[in-house]
Amino acid sequence: MGEGDADAQLMLRYAAGDARAFDALYATHRSALWRFIRRSVQDAAATDDVFQECWSRVITHRESYRPEARFATWLYRIAHNCCMDHWRRSGRRNKREAADDEAIEAAADERSAGPLDAALEGESGEQLAAALAQLPQEQRDAFLLYVEGGLSVSEIGEATGVNPETAKSRLRYAVARLKQALAEAAPE
Amino acid sequence: MNEKDSEAPFPREPWKRLLESSDEGPPETTDARIRAAARRDLVPRGRRWWLPASLAASLVLAVLVVHSEFGTNRRPLVDESDRGESAAIHGTIVDREKAQEPKAPGQSPTAKVKTDLPRAAVTEDDEFGAEDSEFAADAGGMTSHVGGPEREARAASEVPEDVLANTPVHPDVPYAESTAPAAPPAAAAAVAQPRTPEAWYTAIEALRKAGRNAEADAELARFEAAYPDWIKQHGRRRP
Fold it and tell me: Looking at per-residue confidence, does A127 or B221 come out higher?
């Protein structure tokens, strides 16, 4: 799977001692990983610590990396674990749950009702960030892993320790909630 | 993006564009810190033990050197287990002090040993030098023999004249020059030369003829003490 992955090759080169390979790898993933952690942790001060911890684990465990999986899958699994550790350390957890799961389910099913690009027309990054902050932790992580990390549904399930069906369900709930939040925030 | 489009729950790109519009990213200090950590961690792990290992080896070596050089000096001078040995050393020191004190003639331990031994035995010891050896005195630690040439000269001077006179001397055994008492030159020449009773008798006659009767009488007395019947057996008259 990862044999043809350019990132996987860079990681192997870094594990062999090529520091420039790490620079290239870092430049590729730094922004997306930062956003993933920033949205997941929901704490500006803690984001930097979790971000550095994530890369520190990449550096430390570079020799245990195997290119059977994509590098992004491996990287975001580490990032997800770092975020979970942060939540455990802080003793705080986003307990916000769906007020009306059935309504969300219905909204998710309306995905086919109209083009997504049209739904997101005119929205800003800040509005999306605010909408993401309202999501339950599991749904937000699934959404971010899918969008920022580029992980597949099965990879999200593997990274978060759930089966693919649960991961797919979380994604659908997340998208439905985001669309609902953005629609509510949009001016009349 | 390894999944088929049909398996994707929704397209990523519109959401990704929206997220990227926020233009967020880590600060430059974090970037520099992570890149530095990545390079620092690439130092071959095999070398990491060099510094602590070399420091530990140096420390052990230093301890061994110090212990080998000064370890014996750190022992107490008088130990319970060494009581016997230290007593011997103490005895040796006392003997040295006694040996250096002025003594009356014949009271020196060395002189006593010399006077107790037959003259031939004393001479033999002196020839081999074992008795006078500093090493013999120090290494043994149990002997009272101390000193070297100085002690030998002092011991020789301490031997009473009468002892020398009463010591049976065989003409075939020459006096050791180092222990020979100082004698008048002429008498010494007369006494030192004889090797046989005949020559000794002739020397006494020469003294008599030279008018040195006192010396001739003394030598004659010694001669007759050594060879009581020689004159009678050989039909000579007393010179």
Answer: B221
What confidence category does residue B114 fall into, taking pLDDT thresholds of 50, 70 and 90?
A: very low
Cβ–Cβ under 8 Å, residues B169 and B226: yes
Q: Which residue of B has its CA nearest to A26?
A: B35
Cβ-defined contact of B11 to A59 (cutoff 8 Å): no
Residue B14 is nearest to which of A22, A31, A120, comparing CB atoms?
A120
DSSP for residue B173: S
Other beta carbons within 10 Å of B148: 12
Could you give the CA distance from residue B6 to residue B4 in angstroms, rounded to a whole number? 5
Q: Give the single-character DSSP code of B101.
A: S
Q: Search chain B and give the residue with CA nearest A29.
A: B25
Nearest residue on chain A to B13, judged by CA atoms? Answer: A147
Residues of chain A positioned with their CB less than 8 A from the CB of B27: 48
Task: Tell me: ipTM over 0.90.
Answer: no
Of A80-94, B53-67, B150-164, B194-208, minimum mean pLDDT range: B150-164
Does the beta-carbon distance from B16 to A154 stay under 8 Å?
no
The pLDDT value recorded for residue B178 is 43
Residue stretches of chain A with pLDDT short of 50? 1-3, 94-108, 110-115
Judged by a CB distance cut-off of 8 A, whether residue B28 touches chain A is: no
What stretch of H or E contains B93?
A: helix B83-100
